[in-house]
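Subject: sequence -> structure tokens, single chain

Hey, anyone have a minute? Need the predicted structure for the following. Not urgent.
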Amino acid sequence: MFVLIAGGGRTASELGRFLVDQKHEAHLIEDRPEVLARLHRELPTEAIHVGSAIDAVLLEHAGIRKCDVLAACLPRDADNLALCYLARSRFAVPRTIACINNPYNAWLFDEAFHVDVALNQSSILATLIQEEMSLGDMMTLLKLRRGKFSFVEEKIPAGAPAVGRRISELPLPRNCVIAAVIRRGEIEIPRGDLALQEDDEVLAIVEAQAASELARLFS
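Reply:
Had a minute. Here:
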């Protein structure tokens, strides 16, 4: 997969490093001298393009016509919107992802500007903090379907309502599936007749709004 990243901030550079480590092709565009000095220590020089990310000529040079995904991570929301619009309307980029710096601008990031996925950083962080406050020891490992579902893990303590009960007997929330049970370092297939024990690590996929209900069952 070839990903073109606009911007060289911490989010963009971390994404670039992750993609390079995963053996994907990633190019990054940045024009701030102080940021470029850091980027050259973190990413291969050939992956860095110097200039404005909304310069059509530079975008061509960076390979926008062959990229699979454009990630707009610029510090100004107006630039991220303009870039997504330009990427789709002029270069037919199949997928665009934009970061939202100011949450009050979130309503602008939609199909009118050819934004496929808008990531409101403030909202994401606030949601994660709220989950950690309400779910006790349950850990959210992954968000699915843009946050509609969560992949969670919890180690069952002594006295939890689920201890000693078969999976088929558990009052699981609607739209919840037990994906695996790890017991003494080994994975147990979560069939209906499997009875949960103290210290079992349960992996589950649950609708985000029902995660707190699941946490009460396993806590």
